[in-house]
Amino acid sequence: MRSFSRNGMIAGTPTRKLLLLTLLVTSLCQAPAVFAIDAEVRGVRGELATNIRNYLQSLDIPGNAETQTYSYSAEVTQRVKDALKPYGYYEPEISVSFRNREEVIVDVDRGKPVRVRSVVVRVEGEAENDEPFQEALDANPLADLEGKRLLHTPYDTLKTRLTGLALERGYFDARYRQSRIEVHPWEHAAYISLVFESGERYRFGDIFVSGSQIREERLRRMAPFDPDDRYLATDVALYSQRLGDAGWFRSISVRPRLDERSRQSPSSMVTSSPDARVEGEDPDSGGRDFQDDLAVQERPQRATVPIEVSVTPEDRHKFETGIGYSTDVGPRVNFGWNMPWLNDQGHSLNNDLSLSGPEQTLVGEYNVPLANPARDNYYMRYGFKNTDRSESDTRSFESSVSFGREWRFENDWIQNAYLRTTYEDFTQGDEKDQVVLFIPGMSWTRTRTDETRFPMWGDRQDILVEGSSDAWGSDANFLRTRLNSQWVRSLGANNRFVARATAGATSTDDFSQVPPSLRFFTGGDSSVRGYEYETIAPENSDGDLLGGKHLLVGSLEYQRQVANNWWGATFVDTGNAFNDWWPDDLKTSAGVGVRWISPVGPVRLDIAHPFDSEENSWRLHFGIGPEF
Fold it and tell me: Where does the secretion signal sit in this chain (predicted)?
Protein backbone atom coordinates (compact mmCIF):
# COMPACT_ATOMS: atom_id res chain seq x y z
CA MET A 1 0.00 0.00 0.00
CA ARG A 2 1.37 3.47 -0.94
CA SER A 3 2.27 5.71 1.96
CA PHE A 4 3.18 9.40 2.13
CA SER A 5 5.79 11.05 4.27
CA ARG A 6 5.03 14.06 6.45
CA ASN A 7 6.43 16.52 3.90
CA GLY A 8 4.25 15.22 1.08
CA MET A 9 6.94 13.16 -0.73
CA ILE A 10 6.18 9.59 -1.82
CA ALA A 11 7.75 7.15 0.54
CA GLY A 12 8.99 3.79 -0.66
CA THR A 13 11.98 1.81 -1.69
CA PRO A 14 14.91 3.43 -3.57
CA THR A 15 13.96 1.37 -6.65
CA ARG A 16 10.44 2.78 -6.68
CA LYS A 17 11.76 6.35 -6.29
CA LEU A 18 14.16 5.84 -9.20
CA LEU A 19 11.33 4.47 -11.38
CA LEU A 20 9.10 7.45 -10.67
CA LEU A 21 11.91 9.89 -11.43
CA THR A 22 12.61 8.11 -14.73
CA LEU A 23 8.94 8.32 -15.78
CA LEU A 24 8.86 12.04 -14.93
CA VAL A 25 11.98 12.83 -16.99
CA THR A 26 10.69 10.75 -19.91
CA SER A 27 7.36 12.59 -19.96
CA LEU A 28 9.13 15.95 -19.97
CA CYS A 29 11.38 14.93 -22.82
CA GLN A 30 8.35 13.84 -24.85
CA ALA A 31 6.65 17.28 -24.58
CA PRO A 32 6.43 18.85 -28.05
CA ALA A 33 8.93 21.62 -28.78
CA VAL A 34 7.67 25.01 -29.93
CA PHE A 35 9.33 26.84 -32.82
CA ALA A 36 9.14 30.53 -33.78
CA ILE A 37 8.61 31.32 -37.45
CA ASP A 38 11.40 32.72 -39.62
CA ALA A 39 9.74 34.14 -42.75
CA GLU A 40 11.17 34.69 -46.22
CA VAL A 41 8.98 37.29 -47.91
CA ARG A 42 8.83 37.50 -51.70
CA GLY A 43 7.03 39.96 -53.93
CA VAL A 44 7.30 42.98 -51.63
CA ARG A 45 10.23 44.78 -50.05
CA GLY A 46 11.01 47.52 -47.57
CA GLU A 47 8.50 48.40 -44.87
CA LEU A 48 5.87 46.01 -46.23
CA ALA A 49 8.20 43.00 -45.96
CA THR A 50 9.42 44.13 -42.53
CA ASN A 51 5.89 44.44 -41.22
CA ILE A 52 4.95 40.98 -42.53
CA ARG A 53 7.93 39.46 -40.73
CA ASN A 54 6.96 41.34 -37.54
CA TYR A 55 3.42 39.94 -37.71
CA LEU A 56 4.69 36.37 -38.24
CA GLN A 57 7.41 36.55 -35.61
CA SER A 58 4.98 35.94 -32.74
CA LEU A 59 3.50 32.80 -34.36
CA ASP A 60 4.75 29.66 -32.60
CA ILE A 61 4.25 26.19 -34.11
CA PRO A 62 4.54 23.07 -31.92
CA GLY A 63 7.21 20.64 -32.98
CA ASN A 64 4.72 17.83 -33.62
CA ALA A 65 2.40 19.93 -35.80
CA GLU A 66 1.78 19.34 -39.48
CA THR A 67 2.87 22.63 -41.00
CA GLN A 68 1.08 22.00 -44.30
CA THR A 69 -2.28 21.59 -42.61
CA TYR A 70 -4.90 24.20 -43.29
CA SER A 71 -4.80 25.62 -39.78
CA TYR A 72 -1.25 26.95 -39.87
CA SER A 73 -1.22 27.95 -43.53
CA ALA A 74 -4.46 29.83 -42.98
CA GLU A 75 -3.05 31.48 -39.87
CA VAL A 76 0.04 32.67 -41.78
CA THR A 77 -2.14 33.92 -44.65
CA GLN A 78 -4.39 35.89 -42.29
CA ARG A 79 -1.44 37.48 -40.51
CA VAL A 80 0.10 38.56 -43.82
CA LYS A 81 -3.22 40.18 -44.80
CA ASP A 82 -3.36 42.01 -41.46
CA ALA A 83 0.22 43.24 -41.99
CA LEU A 84 -0.67 44.74 -45.39
CA LYS A 85 -3.87 46.55 -44.31
CA PRO A 86 -2.12 49.47 -42.52
CA TYR A 87 -0.55 50.31 -45.90
CA GLY A 88 -3.84 50.24 -47.84
CA TYR A 89 -3.64 46.77 -49.44
CA TYR A 90 -6.87 44.91 -48.66
CA GLU A 91 -7.04 42.38 -51.53
CA PRO A 92 -3.63 40.71 -51.80
CA GLU A 93 -2.96 37.29 -53.26
CA ILE A 94 -0.83 35.18 -50.92
CA SER A 95 0.88 31.83 -51.33
CA VAL A 96 2.35 30.04 -48.29
CA SER A 97 4.80 27.14 -48.24
CA PHE A 98 6.83 25.71 -45.34
CA ARG A 99 10.41 24.57 -45.68
CA ASN A 100 10.15 23.10 -42.20
CA ARG A 101 8.54 23.99 -38.88
CA GLU A 102 10.78 27.01 -38.42
CA GLU A 103 10.91 28.51 -41.92
CA VAL A 104 8.09 29.67 -44.15
CA ILE A 105 8.11 31.19 -47.64
CA VAL A 106 5.45 33.81 -48.32
CA ASP A 107 4.80 34.97 -51.90
CA VAL A 108 2.79 38.18 -51.98
CA ASP A 109 0.99 40.00 -54.77
CA ARG A 110 -0.15 43.11 -52.96
CA GLY A 111 -2.91 43.87 -55.47
CA LYS A 112 -4.51 47.21 -56.16
CA PRO A 113 -4.31 49.64 -53.24
CA VAL A 114 -7.27 51.28 -51.54
CA ARG A 115 -7.29 55.03 -52.04
CA VAL A 116 -8.87 57.69 -49.85
CA ARG A 117 -12.02 59.20 -51.39
CA SER A 118 -12.85 61.73 -48.66
CA VAL A 119 -11.53 62.99 -45.33
CA VAL A 120 -13.66 64.68 -42.67
CA VAL A 121 -11.76 65.94 -39.63
CA ARG A 122 -13.38 68.33 -37.19
CA VAL A 123 -13.12 69.46 -33.55
CA GLU A 124 -16.31 70.58 -31.88
CA GLY A 125 -17.04 72.06 -28.48
CA GLU A 126 -14.91 74.40 -26.38
CA ALA A 127 -11.67 72.99 -27.80
CA GLU A 128 -12.62 74.31 -31.23
CA ASN A 129 -11.13 77.68 -30.20
CA ASP A 130 -8.26 76.22 -28.12
CA GLU A 131 -4.96 77.05 -29.84
CA PRO A 132 -3.17 73.68 -29.36
CA PHE A 133 -6.09 71.88 -30.98
CA GLN A 134 -6.00 74.30 -33.89
CA GLU A 135 -2.28 73.67 -34.26
CA ALA A 136 -2.93 69.92 -34.29
CA LEU A 137 -5.51 70.36 -37.05
CA ASP A 138 -3.24 72.68 -39.04
CA ALA A 139 -0.55 69.99 -38.92
CA ASN A 140 -3.15 67.33 -39.70
CA PRO A 141 -1.34 64.37 -41.33
CA LEU A 142 -4.60 63.37 -43.02
CA ALA A 143 -4.91 66.64 -44.94
CA ASP A 144 -2.80 65.44 -47.89
CA LEU A 145 -4.08 61.85 -47.89
CA GLU A 146 -7.17 62.39 -50.05
CA GLY A 147 -6.74 60.74 -53.44
CA LYS A 148 -3.70 58.80 -52.24
CA ARG A 149 -3.15 55.28 -50.95
CA LEU A 150 -4.75 54.65 -47.57
CA LEU A 151 -2.34 54.65 -44.62
CA HIS A 152 -3.59 53.90 -41.12
CA THR A 153 -0.71 55.58 -39.29
CA PRO A 154 -1.63 59.25 -40.02
CA TYR A 155 -5.18 58.59 -38.84
CA ASP A 156 -4.01 56.96 -35.61
CA THR A 157 -1.40 59.70 -35.07
CA LEU A 158 -3.99 62.48 -35.23
CA LYS A 159 -6.47 60.59 -33.06
CA THR A 160 -3.79 59.95 -30.42
CA ARG A 161 -2.77 63.61 -30.54
CA LEU A 162 -6.31 64.86 -29.97
CA THR A 163 -6.84 62.38 -27.14
CA GLY A 164 -3.57 63.43 -25.51
CA LEU A 165 -4.46 67.12 -25.75
CA ALA A 166 -7.82 66.43 -24.13
CA LEU A 167 -6.13 64.78 -21.14
CA GLU A 168 -3.43 67.44 -20.92
CA ARG A 169 -5.87 70.36 -21.09
CA GLY A 170 -8.74 69.08 -18.98
CA TYR A 171 -11.40 68.02 -21.50
CA PHE A 172 -12.38 65.01 -19.42
CA ASP A 173 -15.84 64.65 -21.01
CA ALA A 174 -14.37 64.48 -24.52
CA ARG A 175 -15.47 61.75 -26.93
CA TYR A 176 -15.21 60.88 -30.59
CA ARG A 177 -18.65 61.42 -32.06
CA GLN A 178 -17.33 59.81 -35.23
CA SER A 179 -14.05 57.95 -35.62
CA ARG A 180 -13.86 55.49 -38.46
CA ILE A 181 -11.99 54.41 -41.55
CA GLU A 182 -14.60 52.85 -43.83
CA VAL A 183 -13.09 50.64 -46.52
CA HIS A 184 -14.93 49.59 -49.69
CA PRO A 185 -12.69 46.95 -51.30
CA TRP A 186 -14.91 46.59 -54.38
CA GLU A 187 -14.35 50.31 -55.06
CA HIS A 188 -10.75 50.27 -53.87
CA ALA A 189 -11.89 53.26 -51.83
CA ALA A 190 -11.78 54.43 -48.22
CA TYR A 191 -13.69 57.15 -46.37
CA ILE A 192 -12.22 58.72 -43.23
CA SER A 193 -14.26 60.55 -40.62
CA LEU A 194 -12.88 61.88 -37.34
CA VAL A 195 -15.19 64.20 -35.41
CA PHE A 196 -13.92 65.06 -31.92
CA GLU A 197 -16.38 66.54 -29.44
CA SER A 198 -14.46 68.05 -26.55
CA GLY A 199 -17.19 69.16 -24.20
CA GLU A 200 -16.37 71.78 -21.57
CA ARG A 201 -12.85 72.27 -20.29
CA TYR A 202 -12.44 71.45 -16.61
CA ARG A 203 -10.97 73.83 -14.07
CA PHE A 204 -8.87 73.18 -10.99
CA GLY A 205 -10.86 72.40 -7.86
CA ASP A 206 -9.78 72.07 -4.24
CA ILE A 207 -6.40 70.63 -3.21
CA PHE A 208 -6.53 67.74 -0.74
CA VAL A 209 -3.30 66.96 1.17
CA SER A 210 -2.52 63.78 3.11
CA GLY A 211 0.56 62.61 5.00
CA SER A 212 2.21 66.03 5.38
CA GLN A 213 4.08 67.22 8.46
CA ILE A 214 4.05 70.75 6.96
CA ARG A 215 1.01 72.99 7.24
CA GLU A 216 -1.40 72.18 4.46
CA GLU A 217 -2.06 75.82 3.68
CA ARG A 218 1.67 76.33 2.99
CA LEU A 219 1.64 73.45 0.51
CA ARG A 220 -1.47 74.82 -1.21
CA ARG A 221 0.24 78.18 -1.72
CA MET A 222 3.03 76.42 -3.60
CA ALA A 223 0.65 75.40 -6.39
CA PRO A 224 1.28 77.21 -9.71
CA PHE A 225 -2.48 77.49 -10.20
CA ASP A 226 -5.44 78.93 -8.33
CA PRO A 227 -8.85 77.32 -7.86
CA ASP A 228 -11.01 77.82 -10.94
CA ASP A 229 -7.98 78.18 -13.25
CA ARG A 230 -8.23 76.12 -16.42
CA TYR A 231 -6.73 72.65 -15.96
CA LEU A 232 -3.27 71.93 -17.35
CA ALA A 233 -1.39 68.68 -16.77
CA THR A 234 1.90 70.60 -16.95
CA ASP A 235 0.80 72.67 -13.93
CA VAL A 236 0.20 69.47 -11.99
CA ALA A 237 3.73 68.31 -12.89
CA LEU A 238 5.18 71.70 -11.92
CA TYR A 239 3.39 71.53 -8.58
CA SER A 240 4.98 68.13 -7.90
CA GLN A 241 8.40 69.54 -8.84
CA ARG A 242 8.01 72.46 -6.45
CA LEU A 243 7.11 70.17 -3.58
CA GLY A 244 10.15 68.06 -4.39
CA ASP A 245 12.45 71.08 -4.55
CA ALA A 246 11.41 72.10 -1.02
CA GLY A 247 13.23 69.04 0.34
CA TRP A 248 10.57 68.28 2.96
CA PHE A 249 9.34 64.96 1.59
CA ARG A 250 10.75 61.55 0.74
CA SER A 251 8.00 60.73 -1.75
CA ILE A 252 5.40 62.88 -3.51
CA SER A 253 2.29 62.05 -5.51
CA VAL A 254 0.24 64.81 -7.13
CA ARG A 255 -2.63 63.77 -9.38
CA PRO A 256 -6.15 64.77 -10.40
CA ARG A 257 -8.92 62.67 -8.92
CA LEU A 258 -9.97 60.83 -12.08
CA ASP A 259 -10.71 57.21 -12.88
CA GLU A 260 -7.56 55.24 -13.69
CA ARG A 261 -6.94 54.86 -17.42
CA SER A 262 -5.17 51.92 -19.00
CA ARG A 263 -2.56 52.42 -21.69
CA GLN A 264 -1.22 49.93 -24.19
CA SER A 265 2.50 49.60 -24.59
CA PRO A 266 3.84 50.49 -28.05
CA SER A 267 4.36 47.65 -30.52
CA SER A 268 7.29 47.11 -32.84
CA MET A 269 4.93 46.37 -35.72
CA VAL A 270 2.67 48.73 -37.65
CA THR A 271 -0.80 47.76 -36.46
CA SER A 272 -4.02 48.10 -38.34
CA SER A 273 -6.25 50.82 -36.93
CA PRO A 274 -9.06 49.36 -34.80
CA ASP A 275 -11.39 51.91 -36.40
CA ALA A 276 -10.88 50.50 -39.91
CA ARG A 277 -14.08 48.70 -41.00
CA VAL A 278 -14.34 46.69 -44.20
CA GLU A 279 -17.84 46.94 -45.69
CA GLY A 280 -19.56 43.95 -47.37
CA GLU A 281 -19.16 42.93 -50.99
CA ASP A 282 -22.57 44.35 -51.97
CA PRO A 283 -22.10 48.03 -52.93
CA ASP A 284 -25.67 48.78 -51.96
CA SER A 285 -25.27 47.38 -48.47
CA GLY A 286 -22.54 49.78 -47.32
CA GLY A 287 -23.28 53.35 -46.27
CA ARG A 288 -21.16 56.05 -44.78
CA ASP A 289 -23.52 57.10 -41.99
CA PHE A 290 -22.01 55.94 -38.70
CA GLN A 291 -21.52 56.95 -35.06
CA ASP A 292 -18.67 56.17 -32.73
CA ASP A 293 -19.13 53.20 -30.42
CA LEU A 294 -17.45 54.88 -27.44
CA ALA A 295 -19.67 55.43 -24.44
CA VAL A 296 -20.35 59.00 -23.36
CA GLN A 297 -19.15 59.74 -19.83
CA GLU A 298 -21.70 61.13 -17.43
CA ARG A 299 -21.10 64.82 -16.88
CA PRO A 300 -20.54 66.01 -13.30
CA GLN A 301 -22.53 68.86 -11.88
CA ARG A 302 -19.46 71.12 -11.72
CA ALA A 303 -16.73 71.08 -14.36
CA THR A 304 -13.91 71.10 -11.79
CA VAL A 305 -11.34 68.48 -10.89
CA PRO A 306 -9.86 68.26 -7.36
CA ILE A 307 -6.13 67.66 -6.94
CA GLU A 308 -4.89 65.02 -4.53
CA VAL A 309 -1.47 65.48 -2.89
CA SER A 310 -0.04 62.53 -1.01
CA VAL A 311 3.41 62.87 0.60
CA THR A 312 5.75 61.01 2.92
CA PRO A 313 7.91 63.18 5.24
CA GLU A 314 11.66 63.24 4.75
CA ASP A 315 13.87 62.16 7.66
CA ARG A 316 14.23 64.97 10.14
CA HIS A 317 18.01 64.54 10.37
CA LYS A 318 20.28 63.61 7.48
CA PHE A 319 24.03 63.08 7.71
CA GLU A 320 26.51 63.02 4.87
CA THR A 321 30.24 62.37 4.69
CA GLY A 322 32.64 62.62 1.80
CA ILE A 323 36.27 62.73 0.88
CA GLY A 324 38.00 64.44 -2.02
CA TYR A 325 41.26 65.64 -3.38
CA SER A 326 42.46 68.51 -5.51
CA THR A 327 45.88 69.99 -6.10
CA ASP A 328 44.59 73.32 -4.74
CA VAL A 329 43.90 72.09 -1.20
CA GLY A 330 45.12 68.46 -1.16
CA PRO A 331 43.04 65.80 0.64
CA ARG A 332 39.71 67.05 1.93
CA VAL A 333 37.06 65.59 4.27
CA ASN A 334 33.46 66.84 4.36
CA PHE A 335 30.73 66.34 6.96
CA GLY A 336 27.14 67.45 6.52
CA TRP A 337 24.27 67.62 9.01
CA ASN A 338 21.04 68.68 7.37
CA MET A 339 17.58 69.10 8.88
CA PRO A 340 15.15 69.49 5.93
CA TRP A 341 12.32 70.52 8.26
CA LEU A 342 12.33 71.79 11.83
CA ASN A 343 8.64 72.60 12.32
CA ASP A 344 5.29 72.60 10.55
CA GLN A 345 6.19 75.86 8.79
CA GLY A 346 9.01 74.19 6.87
CA HIS A 347 12.00 75.93 8.42
CA SER A 348 15.27 74.10 7.69
CA LEU A 349 18.85 74.06 8.95
CA ASN A 350 21.97 72.89 7.09
CA ASN A 351 25.51 72.62 8.43
CA ASP A 352 28.67 71.65 6.52
CA LEU A 353 32.17 71.10 7.84
CA SER A 354 35.12 70.89 5.43
CA LEU A 355 38.62 70.00 6.61
CA SER A 356 41.82 70.18 4.59
CA GLY A 357 45.42 71.04 5.37
CA PRO A 358 45.37 74.73 4.41
CA GLU A 359 41.68 75.46 5.09
CA GLN A 360 39.10 74.47 7.70
CA THR A 361 35.56 75.73 7.16
CA LEU A 362 32.22 75.46 8.99
CA VAL A 363 29.17 77.01 7.33
CA GLY A 364 25.48 76.83 8.15
CA GLU A 365 22.17 78.21 6.92
CA TYR A 366 18.83 78.61 8.67
CA ASN A 367 16.09 78.97 6.08
CA VAL A 368 12.62 80.51 6.62
CA PRO A 369 10.31 79.98 3.63
CA LEU A 370 7.76 82.65 2.75
CA ALA A 371 4.31 82.41 1.13
CA ASN A 372 5.73 80.55 -1.87
CA PRO A 373 8.58 78.45 -0.41
CA ALA A 374 9.73 77.44 -3.86
CA ARG A 375 10.37 81.07 -4.79
CA ASP A 376 10.94 83.27 -1.74
CA ASN A 377 12.64 82.86 1.63
CA TYR A 378 14.56 84.61 4.36
CA TYR A 379 17.79 83.12 5.60
CA MET A 380 20.52 83.46 8.19
CA ARG A 381 23.95 82.21 7.21
CA TYR A 382 26.91 81.83 9.53
CA GLY A 383 30.40 80.48 9.21
CA PHE A 384 33.96 80.15 10.47
CA LYS A 385 37.03 79.76 8.30
CA ASN A 386 40.67 79.27 9.26
CA THR A 387 43.27 79.66 6.51
CA ASP A 388 47.01 79.02 6.61
CA ARG A 389 48.52 79.05 3.12
CA SER A 390 52.24 79.63 2.87
CA GLU A 391 52.18 79.69 -0.96
CA SER A 392 49.90 82.75 -0.95
CA ASP A 393 51.40 84.21 2.27
CA THR A 394 47.93 84.18 3.88
CA ARG A 395 46.97 83.41 7.46
CA SER A 396 43.54 84.39 8.69
CA PHE A 397 40.63 83.49 10.91
CA GLU A 398 37.23 84.67 9.74
CA SER A 399 33.78 84.51 11.31
CA SER A 400 30.64 85.93 9.76
CA VAL A 401 26.86 86.11 10.10
CA SER A 402 24.54 87.33 7.37
CA PHE A 403 20.82 87.94 7.09
CA GLY A 404 19.21 87.99 3.68
CA ARG A 405 16.24 87.56 1.41
CA GLU A 406 16.25 85.30 -1.66
CA TRP A 407 14.02 85.48 -4.73
CA ARG A 408 13.85 82.74 -7.38
CA PHE A 409 12.41 84.08 -10.62
CA GLU A 410 10.68 82.20 -13.43
CA ASN A 411 13.59 83.00 -15.79
CA ASP A 412 15.96 80.94 -13.55
CA TRP A 413 17.70 83.93 -12.01
CA ILE A 414 18.22 83.88 -8.22
CA GLN A 415 18.48 87.27 -6.50
CA ASN A 416 19.91 87.79 -3.01
CA ALA A 417 19.89 90.91 -0.85
CA TYR A 418 21.87 90.58 2.38
CA LEU A 419 23.66 92.26 5.24
CA ARG A 420 26.79 90.45 6.42
CA THR A 421 28.79 91.05 9.57
CA THR A 422 32.39 89.81 9.37
CA TYR A 423 35.27 89.67 11.83
CA GLU A 424 38.65 88.76 10.35
CA ASP A 425 42.04 88.47 12.05
CA PHE A 426 44.60 88.22 9.24
CA THR A 427 48.19 88.34 8.15
CA GLN A 428 48.78 88.94 4.46
CA GLY A 429 52.46 89.22 3.56
CA ASP A 430 53.81 91.90 5.89
CA GLU A 431 50.33 93.34 6.68
CA LYS A 432 48.54 92.39 9.91
CA ASP A 433 45.20 93.61 11.18
CA GLN A 434 41.88 92.81 12.78
CA VAL A 435 38.77 94.23 11.17
CA VAL A 436 35.04 94.25 11.80
CA LEU A 437 32.93 94.88 8.71
CA PHE A 438 29.23 95.46 8.08
CA ILE A 439 28.67 94.67 4.42
CA PRO A 440 25.36 95.12 2.59
CA GLY A 441 25.26 93.47 -0.82
CA MET A 442 23.28 92.12 -3.74
CA SER A 443 23.94 89.09 -5.91
CA TRP A 444 22.35 87.51 -8.97
CA THR A 445 22.98 83.93 -10.10
CA ARG A 446 21.63 81.79 -12.92
CA THR A 447 22.56 78.21 -13.80
CA ARG A 448 21.16 76.34 -16.81
CA THR A 449 22.22 72.84 -17.84
CA ASP A 450 20.82 69.97 -19.84
CA GLU A 451 22.41 67.45 -17.45
CA THR A 452 24.12 68.16 -14.15
CA ARG A 453 26.78 65.41 -14.08
CA PHE A 454 28.43 66.21 -17.42
CA PRO A 455 26.39 68.74 -19.40
CA MET A 456 26.74 69.07 -23.15
CA TRP A 457 24.96 72.43 -22.94
CA GLY A 458 24.86 74.85 -20.06
CA ASP A 459 25.99 78.13 -18.59
CA ARG A 460 26.34 79.86 -15.26
CA GLN A 461 26.36 83.60 -14.51
CA ASP A 462 27.28 85.21 -11.17
CA ILE A 463 27.08 88.92 -10.40
CA LEU A 464 28.04 90.37 -7.01
CA VAL A 465 28.01 93.95 -5.73
CA GLU A 466 28.82 94.73 -2.07
CA GLY A 467 30.40 97.49 -0.01
CA SER A 468 31.42 98.70 3.40
CA SER A 469 31.77 102.11 5.03
CA ASP A 470 32.83 103.61 8.36
CA ALA A 471 29.56 105.58 8.18
CA TRP A 472 27.79 102.52 9.65
CA GLY A 473 30.65 101.34 11.87
CA SER A 474 32.90 99.30 9.56
CA ASP A 475 36.68 99.40 9.86
CA ALA A 476 37.12 99.71 6.07
CA ASN A 477 35.65 101.69 3.20
CA PHE A 478 35.27 99.90 -0.12
CA LEU A 479 32.95 99.06 -2.98
CA ARG A 480 33.54 95.70 -4.58
CA THR A 481 32.12 93.81 -7.56
CA ARG A 482 32.78 90.42 -9.17
CA LEU A 483 31.41 88.95 -12.40
CA ASN A 484 31.70 85.25 -13.34
CA SER A 485 30.56 83.61 -16.54
CA GLN A 486 30.99 80.00 -17.63
CA TRP A 487 29.68 78.37 -20.80
CA VAL A 488 29.49 74.81 -22.12
CA ARG A 489 28.48 74.20 -25.72
CA SER A 490 28.85 71.16 -27.95
CA LEU A 491 29.18 70.38 -31.64
CA GLY A 492 27.68 66.99 -32.34
CA ALA A 493 27.93 64.27 -29.71
CA ASN A 494 31.74 64.12 -29.49
CA ASN A 495 32.93 67.74 -29.38
CA ARG A 496 32.59 69.93 -26.30
CA PHE A 497 33.70 73.53 -25.70
CA VAL A 498 34.14 75.13 -22.26
CA ALA A 499 34.73 78.87 -21.85
CA ARG A 500 34.90 80.92 -18.67
CA ALA A 501 35.70 84.48 -17.70
CA THR A 502 35.98 86.30 -14.37
CA ALA A 503 36.33 90.02 -13.75
CA GLY A 504 36.55 91.79 -10.40
CA ALA A 505 37.15 95.34 -9.21
CA THR A 506 37.53 97.12 -5.86
CA SER A 507 37.36 100.82 -5.09
CA THR A 508 38.90 101.80 -1.73
CA ASP A 509 40.95 104.55 -0.13
CA ASP A 510 42.88 102.15 2.17
CA PHE A 511 43.47 98.72 0.65
CA SER A 512 45.42 97.52 3.71
CA GLN A 513 42.16 97.49 5.68
CA VAL A 514 40.53 95.08 3.21
CA PRO A 515 40.98 91.51 4.55
CA PRO A 516 42.40 88.69 2.36
CA SER A 517 38.98 87.09 1.93
CA LEU A 518 37.91 90.17 -0.06
CA ARG A 519 41.13 90.64 -2.09
CA PHE A 520 41.73 89.04 -5.47
CA PHE A 521 44.16 86.20 -6.17
CA THR A 522 44.30 83.78 -9.08
CA GLY A 523 46.10 80.66 -10.20
CA GLY A 524 45.14 77.03 -9.61
CA ASP A 525 42.83 74.26 -10.80
CA SER A 526 39.84 76.46 -11.67
CA SER A 527 41.56 79.68 -12.77
CA VAL A 528 44.97 79.85 -14.45
CA ARG A 529 46.36 76.32 -14.56
CA GLY A 530 50.12 75.87 -14.61
CA TYR A 531 50.42 78.08 -11.52
CA GLU A 532 50.06 77.15 -7.87
CA TYR A 533 46.77 77.98 -6.14
CA GLU A 534 46.30 81.76 -5.61
CA THR A 535 49.94 82.63 -6.28
CA ILE A 536 49.26 85.25 -8.97
CA ALA A 537 48.78 88.64 -7.28
CA PRO A 538 50.71 91.86 -6.56
CA GLU A 539 53.70 91.49 -4.22
CA ASN A 540 55.52 93.70 -1.74
CA SER A 541 59.21 94.54 -1.97
CA ASP A 542 60.12 91.26 -0.26
CA GLY A 543 58.19 89.21 -2.80
CA ASP A 544 55.32 88.43 -0.41
CA LEU A 545 51.89 88.26 -2.02
CA LEU A 546 49.47 91.01 -0.99
CA GLY A 547 46.47 90.35 -3.21
CA GLY A 548 45.01 92.69 -5.78
CA LYS A 549 42.24 95.24 -6.08
CA HIS A 550 41.18 93.93 -9.48
CA LEU A 551 40.99 90.61 -11.32
CA LEU A 552 40.76 89.45 -14.91
CA VAL A 553 40.80 85.74 -15.87
CA GLY A 554 39.77 83.88 -19.03
CA SER A 555 39.92 80.30 -20.26
CA LEU A 556 39.02 78.41 -23.43
CA GLU A 557 38.96 74.60 -23.53
CA TYR A 558 38.17 72.05 -26.23
CA GLN A 559 37.24 68.47 -25.34
CA ARG A 560 36.92 65.45 -27.63
CA GLN A 561 35.39 62.10 -26.72
CA VAL A 562 37.89 59.31 -27.26
CA ALA A 563 36.00 56.40 -25.62
CA ASN A 564 32.69 55.77 -23.89
CA ASN A 565 33.32 57.80 -20.70
CA TRP A 566 36.73 59.22 -21.59
CA TRP A 567 37.42 62.63 -23.08
CA GLY A 568 40.63 64.36 -24.06
CA ALA A 569 41.08 68.09 -23.50
CA THR A 570 43.31 70.93 -24.60
CA PHE A 571 43.12 74.43 -23.13
CA VAL A 572 44.55 77.93 -22.83
CA ASP A 573 44.24 79.99 -19.60
CA THR A 574 45.19 83.59 -18.99
CA GLY A 575 44.70 86.12 -16.20
CA ASN A 576 46.13 88.22 -13.41
CA ALA A 577 45.26 90.05 -10.20
CA PHE A 578 46.47 93.67 -10.14
CA ASN A 579 46.07 97.09 -8.51
CA ASP A 580 45.90 99.42 -11.49
CA TRP A 581 42.74 99.59 -13.58
CA TRP A 582 44.36 97.41 -16.23
CA PRO A 583 47.06 94.75 -15.79
CA ASP A 584 50.57 95.33 -17.06
CA ASP A 585 50.61 91.75 -18.26
CA LEU A 586 48.47 88.60 -18.18
CA LYS A 587 49.88 85.29 -17.02
CA THR A 588 49.21 82.67 -19.70
CA SER A 589 49.39 78.89 -19.73
CA ALA A 590 48.36 76.04 -22.02
CA GLY A 591 48.05 72.32 -21.59
CA VAL A 592 46.26 69.06 -22.19
CA GLY A 593 44.08 66.89 -19.98
CA VAL A 594 41.92 63.82 -19.56
CA ARG A 595 38.30 63.65 -18.35
CA TRP A 596 36.70 60.49 -16.97
CA ILE A 597 32.94 60.70 -16.45
CA SER A 598 32.49 58.89 -13.15
CA PRO A 599 29.15 58.32 -11.35
CA VAL A 600 29.83 61.32 -9.09
CA GLY A 601 30.90 63.64 -11.89
CA PRO A 602 33.94 64.20 -14.08
CA VAL A 603 37.41 63.38 -12.79
CA ARG A 604 39.84 65.90 -14.28
CA LEU A 605 43.58 65.47 -14.78
CA ASP A 606 45.43 68.33 -16.47
CA ILE A 607 49.05 69.13 -17.16
CA ALA A 608 49.75 72.79 -17.94
CA HIS A 609 52.79 74.81 -18.97
CA PRO A 610 53.06 78.42 -17.63
CA PHE A 611 54.60 80.60 -20.33
CA ASP A 612 55.37 83.46 -17.93
CA SER A 613 56.88 81.44 -15.09
CA GLU A 614 60.55 81.88 -14.35
CA GLU A 615 60.75 78.18 -13.51
CA ASN A 616 59.43 77.38 -17.02
CA SER A 617 58.02 74.08 -15.77
CA TRP A 618 54.93 71.93 -16.08
CA ARG A 619 52.32 71.60 -13.34
CA LEU A 620 49.83 68.80 -12.70
CA HIS A 621 46.22 69.59 -11.71
CA PHE A 622 43.67 67.08 -10.41
CA GLY A 623 40.06 67.54 -9.37
CA ILE A 624 36.74 65.72 -8.95
CA GLY A 625 33.20 67.05 -9.25
CA PRO A 626 30.74 68.75 -11.62
CA GLU A 627 31.63 71.95 -13.44
CA PHE A 628 28.56 73.92 -12.35
Answer: 1-36
